[in-house]
Amino acid sequence: MRKINPGPALSLTLILSLVLFLAAGNGQAYEPPERGLSAAFNHPGVIITPDDLVELPLTIRNFGRTDDSFRITILEQPEGWEAEIRSFSAVITGIFLPGPDQVGLTLAASPPSGARPAPGDYKFKVLVASLDGHLVRETECLVTVRPRRGGA
User: Fold this and answer.
1) DSSP element (H, E) containing 108
2) What are the φ/ψ torsions at residue 20 (nearest 5 degrees)?
3) E strand or H helix that includes residue 70
4) Could you tell me which residues come within 8 angstroms of residue 24 by beta carbon, excluding any fewer than 6 positions away?
5) Is the pLDDT score of 25 beyond 80?
6) What backbone phi and psi angles, to 5 degrees, belong to 129?
7) What string of DSSP letters covers 113-127?
8) Position 76 pLDDT exceeds 90
9) CB within 8 A of 116, min separation 6: which ones?
10) Nearest residue to 52 via CA among 118, 116, 113, 141
């Protein structure tokens, strides 16, 4: 039985991997920008039934090196609906985020007078902006209400 020495092949593979890694990143570690913001609904499109609650997860991320505060505004919601941004049980209109960090929030909405929403599409749009207005992001979610299978 012949023994195979993996040494030369393994060494060549490791050297090639290192060369490719250094060439791809110029050998420098990633440095985040001074300031950065992303804001997005975790699911920009959802389908619910008229009996479901409308609770839309929203992630806001400060990916810069600088701590920052942000205003949060609901720009668009279906007519007559009530909507608010929540963090646990608190309704919030702004948030402080150290850099880099992120937070998960929830847009909670209900149709007029607690009625069941009619089948159709309902759009929600949120604006997140730094207090100085230099960082601005909009995100939206389309909620489609469909009757339960086998009846409404």
Assistant:
1) strand 101-110
2) -65, -40
3) strand 68-76
4) none
5) no
6) -140, 140
7) GGPPPPSEEEEEEEE
8) yes
9) 50, 51
10) 116
